[in-house]
Amino acid sequence: MSETENKASDPLATARKRFRLASEAMEENRERAEEADKFSAGLEQWPEALRKEREEDKRPCLTMDETNQYINQVKNDQRQNKAAVKVRPVDDRADKKTAEMMQGIVRNIEDNSNADIAYDTGFENALRGGYGYWRVITRYEDEESFNQELAIERIPNRFSVVLDPNHQSPDGSDSEWGFVVEMMTHDEYERAYPEAEKIDWKHDQKDSEGWITEDKVRIADYYFAEYTPKTIYQMPDGEVVEESELEGVDLTGLNKRTTYTRKIIWQKINGKDVLEETEWMGKFVPIVEVVGNESIIDGKRRLTGIVHNAMDAQRMHNFAISAMVENVALAPKSANVAAVGQLEGFENTWAEANRRNIPVLTYHPVSVDGVVVPPPQRQPMPGISQGWAEITMQSRQWVQASMGMYNASVGAPSNEKSGKAILARQREGDVGSFHYHDNLARSIRHTGRILIDLIPKIYDTKRIIRILGEDGTPETVILDPQMQRPSMEAKQQDGSVLMLYNPTIGKYDVTVSVGPSYSTKRQEAAEAQTQMIQAAPQLMQVMGDIMLRNMDWPGSDQMADRLKAMLPPQIQELENKNNKDGMEAKAAQLQQAEQVLMQKAETLFQKEKELEQVALSIQDAGQNTAAEQQKLEALKSEMEKLQAEIANESQLLAEKKARISAEIKLAQANQPEESDSEIRVYEADKSYQSELVKAAAEIIKAQIAQEGQETEEPGEIETPEGPDLQMVMQRLDQAVQAMCAPKRVVFDTEGNPVGVETVLQ
């Protein structure tokens, strides 16, 4: 039977095969991870045969664990230095504000779904046993909503994940498929899936390959990629178009290649039937892997954690401790030497002297040949074997060496005296385990890529959502996928301003920063600044406002504002200069944008001329060849694209000009002596009209006039319909009106400037 026929008759044959192959590929890693988990829990730190033998002989079999203190050191170091996703714009359509908004969405997703627990669990599993997982899921916002939200789900049992064994990336980003499984009893299964096809528990387990047993059934979330081939062409203007969109077009000489469209399918399966199925909206299998130590040996992937190499040293330590205790426990007790007859009648008292505190020991004085024999004497106690004590100390050092961490790394006293030397010694221990933290950061970065890929697809309707700032401050924004810009401001009826974003415009990628949390960094900054001011009190006059803003107690911001108002004139002048330099830089950006648009307007005019020449050449040839027609279509497409760009960028330029003018006025609000000149600059904006608009208007007017003259000449030739120049003129007029209209600054309820609006006349 072919694979296609087999898939048709048994749709889950491929799924079962993949599950079996991946389970076999990970069998050795799974055994090592299970052994490491039990070992670090103190359950199996003795070889089973040796433990039974010692227990049968009533010999001590002690476990004195030395590994968990170092495991906890690495684990808690990670919890103090969280990895944070940072979103960056990639192409020219993306902007920084939208990137910050998407970063705020990621923080909110992590906060709502307790992602720190998922990260910590995955990291600890990788630290102990070599690998761990978490995953990204979608869920409804609440019980009565159809809106979905993203969440990061903890996977406490690493053995419930079976991932494509052929993936090469340590974060699992290149996996083609994966399973997340759970075992359910028959009653639980029938209660959870009452409408599913009934399972014959005795008959169906024969061919289920372990999915169905006498008392349980394996349920899995199964993700896998499907590929659809497609042919694409590169047009003369560089645009890439699918073959299906080029019917009737001569494709001779165009660049061509075959590519594939990838999609992820999600199924809920029981090994026999598909219980649910849908297309996953992202392009990645949403299972994230984090690894400890990774190596390839004989073509097999070998994963281990920090416990694996310390096992033998820890076993030797346990054996040395047990042998030393046994040596002491089985040593003969100190005996008393007495002459015959000295203990007569007091035998029981002396026999108990080794285990009881008896204040008076009575004996009979005895003489031999007239000489009184000395009283009974206790013999010295035998010493502890120095060999076992030495092995005990050495085995502890071997445990440390196998983990790359020594006493100073966990705070034990050392020879270092200065604080800098102590920190340097502790940092050496951190370097020995840094690769665990780095692997976690890579996995969190991939989580960010999954979220950034899903955000535009999940939040695909206009809605109000919450985002979180770096300091955890919540903020409300509006997502509107119908907007033509990535971000803009919107004024509400109460006068407040909301930010609007369109996450579907532009491309974004992610990076990860690892370090203390924002509150920790803020406390460190305040502490360092306080020490500086204590050492040099005069600094309070120039940086006191900054120090107070980093302090977290009521009234610190108000005090900072007052101190800022009392800054020396030279400091205020420096800040004003920086603001002015920033405004000049923005003005230079505006001028550059105007020049670019002027060039595009000139290009539009040249394309129009070229279109006319092609039309005339067609008339002279007396026929409309396919090549000439294709050239006409390409020119028309370029012109339409330029028209849209000019219209859109002109509007953006006008809005940006108005916003910068308002910023200049606001920046001068604190400088009364210069406000008049800046107001004149702002008022001059009422009559502003850029050279771009003038040039574009002249080009269009000249073209309209030329067309009017041509219509009066006899024998006019009909050319293919050109671009709608009237529409361009209207859009440019709108841009001129938007720039020339009076503007006023909008303030919030606390008197802070939040934007600018046009004054209707």
Write up what this structure looks like.
By secondary structure, the chain is α+β, with helices and mostly antiparallel strands. Among the domains are: about 200-285, no CATH class; about 520-565, no CATH class; about 570-760, Glutathione S-transferase Yfyf (Class Pi), Chain A, domain 2. The protein contains 21 helices and 23 strands. Strands 4, 5, 6, 7, 8 and 9 form a six-stranded antiparallel sheet that branches. The chain has a four-stranded mixed sheet with strand order 17-18-20-19, with helices on one face. Strand 6 (about 215-235) and strand 7 form a beta hairpin. Helix 5 runs antiparallel to helix 7 (about 115-130).
Strand and helix layout:
Blueprint: H1 3-9, H2 13-25, H3 27-40, H4 48-56, H5 68-80, E1 83-89, H6 96-112, H7 115-129, E2 131-140, E3 148-154, E4 161-163, E5 177-185, H8 186-192, E6 216-234, E7 240-242, E8 255-269, E9 274-280, E10 287-291, E11 293-297, E12 300-304, H9 311-329, E13 336-337, H10 347-351, E14 367-368, E15 371-372, E16 377-378, H11 386-403, H12 419-432, H13 434-458, E17 463-468, E18 474-479, E19 487-491, E20 497-501, E21 508-514, H14 518-535, H15 540-549, H16 556-565, H17 569-621, H18 626-667, H19 672-684, H20 691-712, H21 725-740, E22 743-747, E23 753-758
Helix pairs in contact: 5-7, 7-13, 9-11, 14-15, 15-16, 17-18, 17-20, 18-19, 18-21, 20-21
